[in-house]
User: Which sequence fits this backbone?
């Protein structure tokens, strides 16, 4: 019986030892040198100084970088290096440790490029293409599976001639995006994948192929985990990147900006927006207005309301006493201000009188014109009459001068 117990105990110890060895080998194979565990709040606190967080439909809280116009992920301010995880993106931004190695990128016509946070780390979340002349890559959007990378817009791809791929100044040789559509037709997808912490990602072209295309030797760099948030540092044959293990925790405590609804149906689903009362002088005056309900404590005699001074033209001046009228000048009762706006238009009586005056003036003008016309006609008739009389006299004289037959 004792021998049976000893054999059983020995078998249990051997089995536990074998299990421990297998676990260590599996962890070592997947590279468990990743940094400490953090929550999503580290993303919010670390990236807030370099952009803004908004609530985006279907994806929740997303981040928009303040990187300026022309920014594109995995294209601006960075380059590729080959590491033991495949082609790794080394960003020149101090916040590049998070958006280029966690989560996915999407493009919005209004906001531009938006980063959707994720939990899995990778050297880069991009898709790859190649041809005999170019290498190309593009950010993988949310929901794009590692085995299906079709549907990426042509403008999101970055192509560079093969001889310049992997250089720190490769951005100088990027092909204009206007040619992407033609290049994509002549390229094929690179299905070279790696696995890290049970997460599959695209590693890009093989090192031997790039060495043949660039005619230079490519030495892999070793990726190490940095101890704090900051820019990725490449020193010699070692690349230091802050890459903690992210756990999705509770939502951040601070308030984030909500994205504008994409259509009218979403506007009805938006919660009511609570606005903070303004502190302008006009609102402060409105806040000090007395209540409309009259009570013995708030009687108008005790708390008189201020008179409205917005329209002083309607205020009726007080009548002066006979003594004051005698001593005051004749025009003292009229205020020196400009005429009220209500006297700018003439009254109905004044309008009628003006119309009558104009009508009379028009009739007089017409009568005078007719009189002048008749006088002119009479003068013309008289002139014609005198002309005829002169003509007749001339004819009579001629007839008397002729001899009578």
Assistant:
């Amino acid at each position: 019986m004792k021998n049976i117990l000893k054999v059983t105990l020995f078998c249990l110890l051997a089995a536990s030892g074998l299990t421990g060895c297998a676990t260590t080998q599996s962890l070592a194979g997947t590279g468990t040198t990743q940094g400490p565990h953090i929550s999503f709040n580290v993303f919010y606190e670390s990236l807030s100084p370099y952009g803004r967080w908004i609530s985006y439909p279907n994806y929740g809280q997303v981040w928009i970088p303040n990187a300026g116009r022309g920014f594109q992920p995995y294209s601006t301010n960075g380059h590729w290096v080959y590491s033991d995880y495949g082609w790794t993106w080394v960003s020149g931004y101090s916040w590049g440790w998070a958006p280029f190695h966690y989560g996915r990128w999407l493009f919005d016509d209004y906001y531009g490029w938006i980063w959707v946070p994720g939990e899995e780390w990778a050297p880069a979340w991009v898709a790859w293409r190649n041809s005999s002349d170019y290498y190309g890559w593009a950010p993988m959007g949310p929901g794009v599976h590692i085995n299906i990378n079709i549907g990426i817009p042509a403008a999101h791809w970055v192509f560079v001639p093969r001889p310049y791929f992997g250089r720190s100044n490769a951005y100088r040789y990027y092909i204009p995006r206007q040619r992407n559509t033609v290049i994509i037709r002549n390229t094929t997808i690179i299905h070279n994948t790696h696995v890290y912490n049970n997460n599959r990602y695209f590693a890009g072209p093989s090192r031997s192929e790039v060495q043949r295309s660039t005619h230079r030797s490519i030495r892999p760099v070793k990726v190490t985990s940095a101890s704090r948030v900051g820019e990725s540092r490449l020193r010699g044959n070692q690349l230091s990147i802050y890459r903690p293990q992210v756990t999705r925790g509770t939502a951040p405590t601070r308030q984030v900006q909500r994205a504008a609804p994409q259509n009218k149906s979403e506007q009805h689903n938006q919660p009511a927006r609570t606005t903070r009362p303004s502190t302008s002088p006009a609102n402060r005056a409105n806040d000090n207005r007395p209540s409309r309900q009259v009570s013995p404590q708030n009687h108008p005699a005790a708390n008189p309301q201020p008179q409205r001074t917005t329209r002083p033209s309607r205020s009726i001046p007080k009548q002066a006493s006979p003594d004051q009228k005698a001593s005051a000048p004749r025009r003292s009762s009229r205020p020196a201000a400009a005429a009220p706006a209500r006297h700018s238009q003439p009254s109905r009586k004044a309008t009628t009188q003006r119309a009558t005056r104009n009508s009379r003036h028009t009739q007089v003008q017409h009568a005078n014109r007719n009189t002048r016309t008749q006088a002119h006609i009479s003068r013309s008739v008289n002139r014609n009459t005198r002309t005829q009389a002169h003509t007749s006299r001339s004819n009579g004289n001629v007839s008397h001068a002729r001899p009578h037959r």
